[in-house]
Design goal:
Oligomer: single chain
Strand content: 5-15%
Radius of gyration: 25 Å
Largest sheet: 5 strands, mixed
Distance between the termini: 77 Å
Order of helices and strands: HHHHHHHHHHHHHHHHHEHEHEHEE
Strand order of the largest sheet: 2-1-3-5-4
Helix content: 55-70%
Structural class: alpha/beta
Shape: globular
């Protein structure tokens, strides 16, 4: 006999469905996919075991889905499928530490963390979206490994860790949490056979990318190195402070919903901190990755992108309920907070929808057909060779590669490393059209796209104007500059 689903569980499932539909549709206000999603599609189309920035998993998935459905909506929907899967595992984690109704509310309150909403419309799909899904799953499976020590859980853990590393190197931070907790509370796992079997499984999944990294001298890590270069101790402090403030800002909505519940229940704010296995688990997994990020910023300097920490905030709702006592959740309490959660969803939707509608930005309103046709026309005026390559600022060339009629190839930013996906001899024979936002940047992009050119090569910038209109048909004129490197032979 099927178990009867409670009213709260039904309301939760409906909430997840509404969340998925709302945030899958928000991106359709844009005329093009976000740059991150376009990058993933292009990377996936390279059919390689690495990309200029990240391991290949995200690119493979994005390219696979987009090549089948060939619609922007499929990417937004895929993004939400991953996010909803992550939210579901937050709920499964919550049930370990809380009773059913508190677990549901702790999960629903994560709507106040705008990472689970805006990221689909703003970034579309990228490795961070996958982390929003995979980190809760990884944490849940690890907990089961520590509790049950079953062979199936250890195998699952190895597979998930391998996939997580194949998605983003940042996964190492959650492994640090796993190692520390096991070192304190479960040292015997280091003597168990399945622990090492799990490591071997993860290693075998990651191995093709590792071989690729050795083959190309680990050049994707130059992207991270470029973000972390030293700018002086003032920058170390300011960047870390900004990172910390943005993490607090990301969870303010969750905290606000929790405080509203406390006010309704007339409960004081009292922190109940007992150092036991469960408390330590939440603290170590909830805070250690963020602490490591802060230390990286303080010691390494450079840019600390706030979104590097957002995906590690998934335990926020659970920690609030676990460490701050509340009364039992009545149906009235549940409905009260559920309404506020829907209100948070509406506020974020209106804010983001308005922003995407009014902005006249090339990142969301790129007139691909106009630029592609005009630049092809300019190209055909000087050569009969088909336009096969675009170079320059990637945010200008990516939309042309993905949406352009003949899907031209582009020169990826490989941090001054040789572009392994371009046949230089074919590039010489075909020629290339290089685009820059500013005239002064054009020489840099030309030589970066065509390293075979002499320094004395004469570059003649050509000005090109076009108009971008927002959803209300309000125009904004853009000026870019291009140069045609003629085919040789």
């Amino acid at each position: 006999m099927l178990k009867k689903i409670s009213y709260e569980k039904k309301a939760f499932l409906i909430f997840l469905l509404v969340n998925m539909l709302v945030w899958s549709c928000i991106g359709l206000i844009r005329s093009v996919l976000p740059t991150d999603a376009l990058e993933c599609i292009y990377w996936g189309g390279l059919h390689d075991f690495g990309t200029p920035k990240h391991p290949p998993f995200c690119g493979w998935i994005t390219y696979f889905v987009y090549s089948i459905f060939k619609t922007d909506f499929s990417v937004y929907l895929m993004s939400q499928v991953f996010i909803i899967a992550g939210i579901w595992y937050i709920y499964k984690l919550a049930k370990i530490f809380l009773d059913e109704n508190k677990a549901i509310l702790a999960t629903i309150m994560m709507e106040g963390c705008w990472v689970y909403s805006y990221i689909t419309g703003y970034y579309g799909f990228n490795p961070d979206v996958i982390l929003l899904c995979i980190l809760p799953i990884l944490t849940y499976v690890f907990y089961n490994c520590m509790k049950n020590n079953s062979t199936s859980d250890w195998i699952k853990l190895g597979i998930i860790v391998g996939i997580a590393f194949l998605n983003k190197y940042q996964t190492v931070l959650i492994l640090a949490s796993m190692f520390l907790w096991a070192l304190i509370f479960k040292r015997e796992v280091f003597k168990q056979k399945m622990f090492y079997v799990s490591i071997i499984i993860a290693f075998l999944i990651f191995l093709p990318h590792l071989i690729w990294l050795f083959k190309y001298d680990f050049f994707p890590l130059l992207y991270f190195e470029g973000e972390m270069y030293d700018k002086g101790w003032i920058t170390h402090i300011t960047q870390s402070a900004l990172f910390f403030i943005m993490q607090i800002g990301a969870i303010l909505g969750v905290v606000a919903l929790f405080l509203i519940l406390l006010l309704k229940q007339k409960m004081p704010i009292k922190i109940n901190l007992n150092w036991d296995k469960n408390s330590a688990f939440l603290i170590i997994f909830g805070l250690l990755p963020l602490v490591i990020h802060l230390l990286m910023g303080l010691l390494g300097g450079g840019t600390m992108r706030p979104r590097w920490g957002f995906e590690f905030l998934f335990l926020t709702g659970i920690m609030l309920f676990y460490f701050i006592p509340t009364k039992e959740i009545s149906k009235d309490d549940f409905n009260f907070i559920l309404k506020f959660a829907y209100g948070a969803m509406l506020i974020i939707f209106i804010s983001m929808g308005t922003l995407l509608s009014v902005e006249k930005n090339y990142r969301s309103r790129y007139p691909v057909d106009v630029l592609y046709n005009d630049l092809n026309k300019k190209w055909s005026e000087v050569t009969e060779t088909p336009l096969k390559y675009f170079g320059g600022y990637i945010e200008w060339t990516l939309p042309l590669a993905i949406y352009g009629k003949d899907h031209p190839q582009i020169i990826l930013d490989t941090n001054h490393y040789k572009n392994i996906w371009i046949d230089e001899e074919d590039l010489k024979k075909s020629g290339i059209l290089v685009i820059a936002r500013y005239k002064r940047e054009l020489p840099k992009y030309v030589h970066k796209s065509c390293p075979y050119l002499d320094e004395s090569y004469e570059i003649k910038p050509v000005e090109y104007k076009f108009t971008i209109k927002n959803a209300f048909n309000m125009p904004r004129e853009y000026i870019i500059y291009y140069h045609i490197v003629m085919p040789e032979g």
